[in-house]
Amino acid sequence: MLWQALAAACIGSLFYARRVFMWARRHLNFRSPRAMGFVFATAYGLVVSPLVLSLYRQGHIPSFGDVFLLGIMLTAYFFTWEGATYLLGVGLLVSAWVLPLDGTLAAVSTGNLYRLVSFALVSVFLICLITRLKTGRQSVRRSHRMTVSHEAAGAD
Question: Does residue 54 fall inside a structural domain?
C-alpha cells in the first residue's frame, strides 16, 4: 500500500512538471514544443535512471521499462514524438546495460532480447497512437473553428 501511495504521488507530480516546463519555456525563450520535449526527456531520463537502477538492484521492481514507458507516454502527449523517441533510446540503452551482465551492452539470452524488442515495439506503438490522437484532436478543433467562423461570417 505504501508503494501504491508513493507511485501515485510520483505520477501525480509529473503532471505538474508541465507547469515548470512552461515557466522555463517562457523564461529561457524555448519557443518550440520540440525543444521542450527534448529537455523534458533528458530531465526525466537523468532523474529516473539512477532511481530505477537502485530499486531494480534491490529487487523492489521486476521491470524498470515500465517507468520509462510512462515517461515516453508523457513526452509524446505533452510535447512531440521526437522527444518521446529520444527517451525510448535512453530507456533501451539503460535496459541493455542492466539486463544481461551488469555493465555490458550484450544481449546474452533470448529472454533479454525479447524484453528489449517488446519494450521498443510497445513504446513505438504508444508514440504513434498518442501522436495520431493528438493530430486528430487538433484537426477537429481546426474544423470546429472554421465552422464557427463561417457561421459568424454568414450571420453578418
Answer: yes
Q: Is the pLDDT of residue 101 over 60?
A: no
Q: pLDDT for 58-96, tens place per residue?
A: 766 666 678 888 889 988 988 889 999 999 999 888 877
Residue bearing cell 508523457:
74
Contact 32, 47 (CB under 8 A): no
SS3 76: helix
In a domain, 7, yes or no: yes
Contacts of 90 (CB under 8 A, 6+ apart): 41, 45, 49, 68
Q: Is the pLDDT confidence value at 124 over 70?
A: yes
51 falls within a domain? yes
Instruction: Return the pLDDT at 62.
Output: 60
CA 23 to chain centre: 19
In a domain, 152, yes or no: no
Q: How many other C-beta atoms lie within 10 A of the C-beta of residue 100?
A: 18
Domain count, the chain: 1
Write out the residue range of the structural domain in which residue 18 sits: 2-130
| Under 8 Å between Cβ of 91 and 48 | no
